[in-house]
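Tokens as discussed.
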């Protein structure tokens, strides 16, 4: 599932490609991917301009000149592609939005969705999300207070969107590895130094993942060399049995609260 770095990469690239452009057509191939009937959805999008593209947690928000917002959550298996009739993936597209000579294809939206919402509806939809970990206001004292109120394992704490928004299976493991802490370590067992290292690791991993374009494998458009650059830089995630990059011990895969989890048994304490 795309996490914060992947959605932030999408946001930046989509802004370059589509911001301030007008939607000229909409095709709906799966009614369950949207929240209103297809006729209303099309009529409210066509001729609206995409004035801005924002991200909140794992969501993208397409701000429209009509005052409405198009809220996207890709969920598991969802991705996007910018192309045209001659250049597009040979996959089922649940929604296609045309912007002049370009088409934005939404693929794999079996669990994901595109919802058209007012500002009030959008605020209500996102109200339960925790702080943005890459926001400048997310300081160490803020993190220390947050983590100090938790009693669960680091893995389950980090993937809880009400604790921090945007982190999932991949980056929870990468952050714990960077900090040298086991993902099953309890948050209330951390000392001051460990909390500080965890905060620095959190900031460092997410910043680096965004810098290299996240771990999504599919490019956003032909010639896209940014998306997925972090895929080969993951230090533990999806590397079961491979040697640890710090100590050469094999990376272990386990399930923690039904979530696959990767870590080094030797150098994470």
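Sequence:
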């Amino acid at each position: 599932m795309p996490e914060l770095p992947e959605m932030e990469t999408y946001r930046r690239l989509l802004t370059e490609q589509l911001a301030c452009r007008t939607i000229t057509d909409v095709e709906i191939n799966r009614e369950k991917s949207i929240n209103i009937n297809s006729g209303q959805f099309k009529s409210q999008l066509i001729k609206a301009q995409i004035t801005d593209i924002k991200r909140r947690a794992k969501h993208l928000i397409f701000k429209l000149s009509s005052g409405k917002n198009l809220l996207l959550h890709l969920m598991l298996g969802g991705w996007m592609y910018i192309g045209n009739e001659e250049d597009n993936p040979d996959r089922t597209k649940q929604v296609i939005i045309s912007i002049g000579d370009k088409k934005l294809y939404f693929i794999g939206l079996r669990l994901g969705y595109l919802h058209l919402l007012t500002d009030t509806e959008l605020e209500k939809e996102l109200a339960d999300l925790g702080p943005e970990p890459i926001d400048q206001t997310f300081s160490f004292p803020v993190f220390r207070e947050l983590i100090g109120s938790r009693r669960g394992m680091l893995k389950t704490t980090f993937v809880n969107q009400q604790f921090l928004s945007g982190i999932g299976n991949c980056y929870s493991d990468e952050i714990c590895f960077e900090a040298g802490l086991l993902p099953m370590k309890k948050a209330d067992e951390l000392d001051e130094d460990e909390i500080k290292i965890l905060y620095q690791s959190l900031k460092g991993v997410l910043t680096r993942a965004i810098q290299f374009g996240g771990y999504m494998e599919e490019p956003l458009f032909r010639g896209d060399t940014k998306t997925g650059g972090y895929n080969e830089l993951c230090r533990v995630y999806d590397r079961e049995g491979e040697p640890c990059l710090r100590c050469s011990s094999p990376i272990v895969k386990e399930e923690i609260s039904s979530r696959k989890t990767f870590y080094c048994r030797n150098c994470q304490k």
